[in-house]
Amino acid sequence: MNNLRGSGILCYTQNKCSHIERRTGIRRFAMKVLMKPIKMIAWFNEDGTPNPVRFNMRQDDESAITVRIDRVVQKREEKLAGNRMLVFTCQSLINNIEKIYEIKYELNSCKWYLYKM
């Protein structure tokens, strides 16, 4: 995969990875790293695992938008500088456009972040 660094955008080009797409069915897309704090509504399992439902965030023009999470594509755990985080890859319809994005839940502080969109 071809990763463009330094621009704040992770881009996986299709010309280098078309054989991977045919084999796995995974489509490549560009996501910008945001790491914005968000207000989340989620429910928790008995073991304490969060399941995100919808979130509220501020746009660039300071207006608020509520996004309903249509589908959680993937959930994984990562450790960044000693902080355990759950990373959710989600899919939603935002402004009539189907978007895939990543949200993070910091386990120590119980804070949610819109990581990539």
Helicity, in percent? Answer: under 10%
Distance separating the two termini: 19 Å
Strand content: over 45%
Number of domains: 1
What's the quaternary structure here?
single chain
Structural class: mainly beta
Which terms summarize this structure?
single chain; 117 residues; mainly beta; eight-stranded antiparallel sheet; 1 helix; 8 strands
Structural account:
- By secondary structure, this protein is mainly beta.
- It has one domain (33-116).
- Helices cover 9% and strands 58% of the residues.
- Strands 1, 2, 3, 4, 5, 6, 7 and 8 form an eight-stranded antiparallel sheet that branches.
- A hairpin with a 2-residue loop joins strand 6 and strand 7.
- The two termini are 19 Å apart.
Short summary of the structure?
The chain is mostly beta strands. It is built from one helix and eight strands; from the N terminus they run E-H-E-E-E-E-E-E-E. The relative contact order is 0.19.
Protein topology:
Blueprint: E1 9-10, H1 14-24, E2 31-44, E3 50-58, E4 64-68, E5 71-80, E6 83-94, E7 97-106, E8 111-116
